[in-house]
Amino acid sequence: MFSTLLVGTQFAVASFLLIALTVISFQNTAMRRNAFSSIEDPLVLIENPTSMTKVGVDTLRERLSAVPQVRAVTEVMMTPWEGLFITVVKDSPDPQAAQRTAVTRQVGYDFFKVFNVPLLAGRVFDRAHSEDVPAQPPRPGLQVGGAGVGNSAGGASSGAQSSGGPPPPQNIVADRSFIAALGFATPEDAVDKLVYAPTPQFPPGAQPRPPMRIIGVVEDRSFSFFKLPDNTIGAMYALQADLGITVARVAASDLEAGLTNIDAAWKELAPNVAVSRRFLDEIFERAYATYVRVNHLFGTLSVMAFAICVAGLFGMAVFVAGRRRREIGVRKTLGGSTRQMIVLLLTGFSWPVLIANLVAWPAGYVAARLYLKQFSESVSITPLPFMLSAVITLVIACVAVLGQAVRAARTTPAEVLRNE
User: Fold this and answer.
1) What is the pTM assigned to this prediction?
2) Domain edges within the chain
3) Residues 376-413: pLDDT tens digits?
4) How far is CA 145 from the centre of its chain?
């Protein structure tokens, strides 16, 4: 009984690790697939600061747009998967209205074309609408580990009321989750509606911030791994000039020539400064590396656990098979076949493994839920990891004891019964 309990405990631990490994692998695969499923061409980020290169954002955009292999150019404030800016918003100007948080992405023209974000309703930022451009740069939020927290959405500040009248609304583009959380039934219903930022508490007596008008609704697109606070309602995009990171979408069919031409264009603009450029997938891989290491860790632990399980089960199989030789001899004398004896022994060894899986499943389910809650986009927990765990542990158990089971089942009755 003790040996059976010990082996069962070992297999319960192995089953738990196998469930965790499967869920982590599924989640990592989904993150990689979702990150680039909608991006058809490589995206090249140029991160040289304008203050050092003296190359204006508009100048760089125009020069890169002239490269034949570059299909579109835009700008972003923060590198995807390396930083976030969080804004507090509410759906009413009432000071007592409930406040929620939203991801705010400061972007340039053609952002949605470069990142291939589908438009669902309304319009996106374009040069034909001068009102899209904010009057002032956004107030910086509190930077913590690459993430920003602030109360400014698109750059209009309380000082925008220089003419004495109320400032015009700041145009924003919202995603599907954002407008759904505000209660709009369809993307079309949200177009031209207003959302509000709370009045700053400092300095005392600050004027209310101008409202934000939704001019368009786009599909959800996540550029971070970790899950945001529960009251985060989605993302909104604000047009901003003079952003620090330029993103060029380069044709995949002629990537090498495109990179050569980009480098040549940069050398013309800033001959004394080396271009600092990265591919978007390089940035993703760098941020993704932590989750790959977790996957490898659980894989190593699973292999070690199964090695211990096999050793324990093999020792128990040698012991049990020796004790049941007389039983097998009697059964074969009464007409039992070798095949029936093998099935009998394997069934006896399988029960502790099955019970171990049933014990490990609840713990595996709870651990999987806790792990997946960390991500902005997580996979669903299906029966597949638990079924795989049961099948793999049973197969390993049967392989571990098969040799001893066959050896015991082939025992001839005369060998064990002649001394009885």
Assistant:
1) 0.72
2) 2-29+287-417, 70-250
3) 778 889 999 999 888 888 887 777 777 666 666 666 66
4) 18
CA angle 251, 254, 258 (to 5 degrees): 75
pLDDT in tens, 281-295: 888 888 888 778 887
Distance (Å, rounded) from C-alpha 350 to C-alpha 353? 5
| Cα–Cα dist 193/91, whole Å | 9
Beta bridge partners of 74: 247
Residues 6+ positions from 264 with CB-CB distance below 8 Å: none
